């Protein structure tokens, strides 16, 4: 999996970011929260923990679960990131990037929660809700 640097912004440009360890594989999340938040599957890029923001005062954060929070632009409402609380790992919304450096849809999570009205043609690695919870639930 390739790692590169990427830049991007929200719709209005108030929040800009640089992701220094951006992977080029996109994941799609079909969980109920992501579908409500993104009005469809959340298409996101793993950017690790090295993400710098300009316009940080305009970022709102919603505490969406025990282990993650979601960031959005307070000005235009753009979804910015899904961030793991225990590691600081950022999953940045794929549509925010200035350029799409050979992005590839590689995996889908909460595949058992995907509604029947859409489907992707690419072959991907798929994980169920139970597999994701077993892998990412925070230590107690």
Topology diagram in text:
Blueprint: E1 3-9, E2 16-23, E3 25-29, H1 32-38, E4 42-46, E5 51-54, E6 59-62, E7 68-73, E8 79-84, E9 90-93, E10 104-109, E11 125-127, H2 129-136
Parallel strand pairs: 3-10, 10-11
Antiparallel strand pairs: 1-2, 2-5, 3-4, 4-9, 6-7, 7-8, 8-9
Task: Quickly describe the structure.
The protein is mainly beta. The chain has 2 helices and 11 strands.
Can you describe what's shown?
With 140 residues, this protein is mainly beta. It has a single domain, classed as Metal Binding Protein, Guanine Nucleotide Exchange Factor, Chain A (Beta Complex). The chain has two helices and eleven strands; from the N terminus they run βββαββββββββα. The strands form two sheets. It has an eight-stranded mixed beta sheet. A three-stranded antiparallel beta sheet has the order 1-2-5, with no helix packed on it. It is globular, with a radius of gyration of 14 Å. The chain starts with a strand and ends with a helix.
Total discrete domains:
1
Helix/strand order, N-terminal first = EEEHEEEEEEEEH
CATH architecture: Beta Complex
How would you classify the helix and strand content by structural class?
A: mainly beta
Shape: globular
Low-confidence stretches: none
- The overall average pLDDT, rounded, is 93
CATH names the topology as: Metal Binding Protein, Guanine Nucleotide Exchange Factor, Chain A
Count every helix, treating DSSP H or I runs of 4 or more residues as helices. 2
Gap from first CA to last CA: 31 Å
